[in-house]
Amino acid sequence: MLIATLGVPLVGAVLGALAAESFTGKRLLSGLALLNLGAAALLAVLVTFGKPDFVPGPWNLALAADRLGVLFALLAAGIQATVLPYAARCLDPRAFRRFAAVSQVLVAATDLTGTAATLSTLVLGWVVASVAVYALVAGTGAPPGAARRLGAAFLLGDGALVGALVMIWRFAGDPSLFRLSEAEARLAAVRFVLGPAVLTAGDAVAVLVVASAVVRSALWPGPRWLPSTLAAPTPVSALLHAGVVNAGGFLLIRLSPFFAATPAASVLALTAGLGTAALGGVASAVRSDVKGALVYSTMSQMGFMIAECAVGAFAAAAFHLVAHGMYKASLFLGSGDGISEHVHDRRSCAPPAPAPNRMRPVLACTGAFGLLALAGLLHPALLAHRGGEVTVVFAAVTSGALLWGWAERRQAFGQTPWAFLGVAVAGAAYLLWFSAVTGWLTPELPAVGAGFLSPFWLLGALAAAGGLAAIVAYAGRWPRVAARLHARALWAAWGMPPTRSAMSAAKQRRRLEVELWKQPI
Amino acid sequence: MEATDLSAPQRVAASSAAERARLRVDVESAARLLAPMWPLESFIAVNPLMGLLELRFEGAVREASRWLPLTGYPSPAFMKAAYGEGRVTDADLAAVLAERHLDADQTLPALRAWLEHPEGAVGPSPGAAGELADRRRALTTYLATDAQLAAFCATFADEGASGWALGDRSGGLYHCWRAVAALDPLLRCRLRRRAARAVAALPADPEDALLEALVRLGVPAEHRVEELRRQLTRLPGWASYARWREEWAGPDCTSPPLGVLDLLAVRMSYEALLFDPTGTAPGSAPVPAEGGGPWAGIWLEAYERHYRDDILGRLSAGRGIQRDAQPEAQIVFCIDARSERLRRCLEALGPYATFGFAGFFGFPVAVAGLGDRYGTARCPVLISPRAIVRERPAPGRARAAVSHLRSRARAAAAHNAWHVAKIAPGAAFPLAEALGWWLWPAAGLRTVWPRLSRHSAPPTVLDPGAAGGLALDERILFAENALVTMGLVRDFSPLVVLCGHRGRTAANPHASALDCGACAGAPGGPSARLAAAALNEPAVRAALVERGIRVPDDTWFVAAEHNTTTDDVTILDWHLVPARHGARLAQLTSDLAEAGRRCAAERGPSLPGAPAVRDARVAVAHVARRAADWAQIRPEWGLARNAAFVVGPRSLTSGIHLEGRVFLHSYEPDLDPDGLVLESILTGPLVVAQWISAQYYFSSVAPEVFGAGDKTLHNPVGGIGVLCGEGRDLRVGLPWQSVAVGNRLYHEPMRLLTIVQAPLGRLDIVIARNTVLGQLVDGQWLHLVAESGDGTGWHTRRAGSWWPWEPAMSCGEVARWNWKA
Predict the structure, then answer these.
(1) Among B184, B585, B495, B123, which Cα is nearest to A490's?
(2) Which of B416, B514, B729 to mutate to test the interface with A (most CBs of A within 10 A)?
(3) How many domains would you assign to chain B?
(4) What's the complex ipTM?
(5) Residues B426, B464: one domain?
(6) More exposed terminus of chain B, fewer Cβ within 10 Å: N or C?
(7) What is the predicted pLDDT for the residue at A156?
């Protein structure tokens, strides 16, 4: 079944390259994508009830399915099963042919990463996925600048991962992913003396792995490659945001034993994660274009996920990785609804009154505490994994925000009991489902080592963010301050095109023409 | 290149009123290069060069190509393909050359050589790029300035799409920009510490700022308009939108006041701050493009002439079809070219008479649907609405209406809750986690099993006479005008159907481009409903009798709506139709349904990706699925391939297969001795049709400038428009997929062929009375062909006079082309 999960997309890639343009070819491809989803689902069932499948290969390449890997493969297959038929109708035949072939390779590479049993297999899958992403963006009509930026970023990120692999090879051989602690122990024994500092090979590996994850998940302070992929067609964006950027989180969970003795790596990941969560959140709030807001929202979400990894809340991070992938891909596919939704909304309701409605905070607080109380009833199940408390608090904040937003629309005010009921039911369903999925995942997740920070750091960050948001909201009373804060966010969100570069005049003129007038049609 | 000290004496202290007035005139004349761009909430097809109307077509295209990278004519490669297929022939070329008194034998080789002309003979590089090309930093500065300004425009113009919007915007773009410009990374990077001081020294008023920038950049007065024009062409999308906001949006518009002058003030202030004024010499006139030239014009005319000969041949051959004395029902359709197919299919099914009339049915009002906060105009943009008509619950159905309103408020509040939670700190994460599990299965379902959402609105009435609506004498006037203009003043059938149209699609930013252009890019159903209500009103009918129009008591006006994406027709307001008409209406409904099926089967195969099976049922199922499909970038072809506008009685065109390419406006020359009706048709619907035709033309031949780019890269901004990929400028016009498949055009780029049946003398008078019409007709913006109806045959209008029509081809060739075209 493991071979089927990996093989079906490869068959699809060949078929895509050969017959994507014909009507039957499209049907067959969609069928294969569904078949792949079925295979992944069956594999998940087998893994839940049976022993993990192990498939050895040549050169120390090997595959094994565990719950985390299967979840990752299931996500890739599920995304592909919808995006492929979507792309078949949306892209022009030639672009679709390329998309069909390359995206299937991407799915196969993602499966390979997910179900790798040895480190070299994982890195192989990772690098192949990078190449496929580059081909996907470069080959579907995006201007060369976008692909170049993405290529450079991935070269950096993959270089870091390959560097880590080489170092592990040198000092600990090619370890099985399920016995990484032994390798970590051997790496920790290798010391380099750099002047006054003493660095172990384990530290170096941990930092390199974090760097690689930061690049793949498009986090600050890594290169900003994700916004430039707006130049790629909608289905490519859906695939990127659902199945590519979240690989960073997967990598950190899989290789977490390397962090056991390196708190610095966790601190690094937490800083990058929380920093991006905040910056991305602000940037996505400021952008008025649909896809631009979605891109920065993804960066923010990835930051949260990496921060969860950094505090050892692996199950919560995996849950977030999957759910957010589905969420964001749906929003991208529906981005064309932007105009009609906006207009319908504007016609339906008056804009919120400038004077704050006193009921809003009351409603929001009641909702938040209500959900906390509800969570109290479900308490034991939720605390079964690391970071469960954090999830409950975040969920309570969300329900408060939802009720706040509801109360902004005066017309619906009379129906607030329905809103309470809706939030309560949705919140309970969310918490139950969360504990079910994380409960399913937890037994096969790596143990959390001593090098990880406490999950309560996330709560601290939430409190800080809430405080800052309150200041920004309050600054509305001083228009000048508000405008300056907004301007800072605005320029950060749109980014600035390079102004100083060493390109030749001819090259720049060409770029001027390309970027301004010769946009691909 | 250093920015100068801002206390330099070039600074104008305070501009005099005369200077400001002159500046405003200059800005206005510079802005005429760009047509206004309506927000996508209600897409309006415009002639992108409508500001240059008085230059004639050739002159306007030449002027535009000085500033924008376009030739304005179909490319040599396109013409070569058309020539190869015989779509344009040597005979057509020879005829055009003869008209221009050119020798065919000498000129034809040169014309053929032009076909081998390389692609991309596009005009000068835009803006100041040409003269600054040797200055590397200047180029990057230009790009960076455009990017910064476009981003600021997107933020400024936004109306609630972003979570954290700009504060008070009533001061205008320049005011808002100046308040925060010191934080702009571009200025900070270039001016370093001086940025804050330099920005603070900018004048507070945009006019002063623009004047000061012009002085500091050393633009001589005689080149000022040219420099301003060049500045505007750097961001043509936002500038076009600003033109709409300033000149067409109306005083009640709530969207932020983006102005052309503000835009220029910001852009030129950037340049004045970033460039060394002594080194630059902006203002020298750009080099005219050499790409178009006379050959392209001759090819285009021959191409158009071929179609003209073809359609006139068919109209002449199809003469003499008389319809039954008293039709079972009379159906009035919009002039939209897509109605032609449905009319032809319906007439083939039974004794039905059809009419063509602008889809707002002559009632210039705004309509507010049930629960809408504000009304939207439902009349051509050339007319401003006279009143707001509000939709009200039908008598006795108030309870259903209330529950509808409640559910609508609930949906809006839930939507807002989602918006707030998305940006609240920390809330976005559980939100994504909770929703992802629901949204993705829904997305999968929507992809494999597309269904349009069903609007279960309660029965309502749209009464034009309700409070706030039209007064009785206005209703009478509009009703009379409508009936007289469409030529329906006697022999009323028991049922007269007014059929508006719309195009329902899913996840389509350009959805309103498929709606009714005569209703200002909105669905035509409400207009049909209120026109029918007015015409059924006893007081209106009584007044009509006094004016000589006797509508029989048993005649009932029924409203209907044609959904052009699926070709089904819905009868609206069933609940108002008297029971005595039930059987007749049921028969008509089933005939309309059958006509719609035939229509869908006819156009189905032309849609890319449609099943190759030639089976009507398959085609019907396919178009229905296509309309609902959110992945579909071409739900229908819309008005692509539109080619001609026919003004005349239906007997002129009935029974002739016009392939849905022709706008049909009813006109009875005998009822209009003084030419007033003809005048209203040629100054209203004709202009709208010309805008549509020109929009399709320019979006086809200059897709980079006047087209909206690739639909798969579209990125909606609020309710305003789309960006394309990484670009930050708004894209105007139609998406590439609306006019082409792959890299091959589907639309045939031609100027509108106007065919009128009316005495030539009457046409001369009407043209002489109306400047714009004269410019359109005699400035080659469209081709006019007319027939008096007295047996003297078709006449074409050329250089202000009439010439008998002579086809370039023999009749055999015409017949051969009939089936191919």
Answers:
(1) B184
(2) B416
(3) 3
(4) 0.90
(5) no
(6) N
(7) 93
Put simply, whether A298 touches B (Cβ < 8 Å) is no
In a domain, B379, yes or no: yes
Q: What are phi and psi of B251, to 5 degrees?
A: -70, -25
Residues B357 and B226 in one domain: no
CB pairs under 8 A between A and B: 408
Strand-pairing partners, residue B389, are B367
Q: d(Cα B642, Cα A484) in Å, to the nearest integer?
A: 50
**Domain residue spans of chain A:** 356-454
**Residues B345 and B433 both lie in one domain:** no
Cβ-based contacts of B124 with chain A (< 8 Å): none
H-type helices in A115-259, by residue range?
A: 119-139, 144-172, 180-188, 201-216, 234-239, 247-254
- The continuous run of DSSP H or E covering B787 comes out as strand B782-787
Probe site for chain B from A21, A346, A359, A430 (most B CB atoms < 10 A): A346
CB contact at 8 A, B334 and B518: yes
Interface-testing mutation among B712, B732, B744, with chain A (most A C-beta atoms within 10 A)? B712
Residue B216 lies in a domain: yes
Q: How far apart (Å, rounded) are the C-alpha atoms in residues A92 and A104?
A: 18
Which residue from A287, A325, A333 is facing B162, i.e. has the nearest CB? A287
Based on the domain organization, do B557 and B614 belong to the same domain? yes
Of residues A453 and B52, more confidently modeled: B52
Q: Which of B410, B421, B435 is opposite residue A405, by nearest beta carbon?
A: B421
Predicted confidence at residue B105, as pLDDT, reads: 84
- Mind telling me how many Å the CA of B736 is from chain A's nearest CA? 6
Q: Is B579's pLDDT higher than 70?
A: yes
Give the structural domain span for B490.
313-317+328-393+459-745
Q: What is the dihedral of CA A162, A167, A171, A175, to 10 degrees?
A: -30
Q: Which residue has the tokens 């000589």?
A: B548
Least confident range of A246-260, A482-496, A506-520, B730-744: A506-520
Residue at B434: amino acid letter: A
Cα(B424)–Cα(B422) distance, integer angstroms: 6
Q: Does some domain include residue B468?
A: yes
The residue out of B680, B714, B745 marking a domain boundary is B745
* Interchain contact A67–B (C-beta under 8 A): no
CA torsion angle B480 B484 B489 B493 (round to 10): -90
Q: Say yes or no to pLDDT of A83 above 60.
A: yes
Q: Is A440 on the interface with B (CB under 8 A)?
A: no
Contact across the interface for B710 and A520, Cβ inside 8 Å: yes
d(CA B375, CA B530): 14
Are B438 and B554 found together in one domain?
A: no
- Shared-domain flag, residues B374 and B427: no
Closest residue on chain A to B742 (Cα) = A92
Specify if B10 maps to a domain. Answer: no
Q: Say yes or no: B471 and B430 in one domain.
A: no
CB of A85 less than 8 A from some CB of B: yes
pLDDT, tens only, B149-180: 999 999 999 988 888 888 888 999 999 999 99
Domain boundary among B414, B448, B482: B448
Total count of residues recorded for chain B:
821
pTM: 0.92
**For position A470, what pLDDT does the model report?**
83
pLDDT in tens, A262-280: 888 889 999 999 999 999 9
- Residues 6 or more apart in contact with residue B48 via CB below 8 angstroms: B34, B35, B64, B694, B695, B698, B705, B706, B732, B733
Is residue A8 over pLDDT 80?
Answer: no
- One domain, residues B482 and B584: yes
Asked if A289 and B433 come within 8 Å (Cβ–Cβ), the reply is no
Convert the pLDDT of each residue in A294-307 to its tens digit: 999 999 999 999 99
Tracing tokens 């589907």 back to the chain, one arrives at: B746
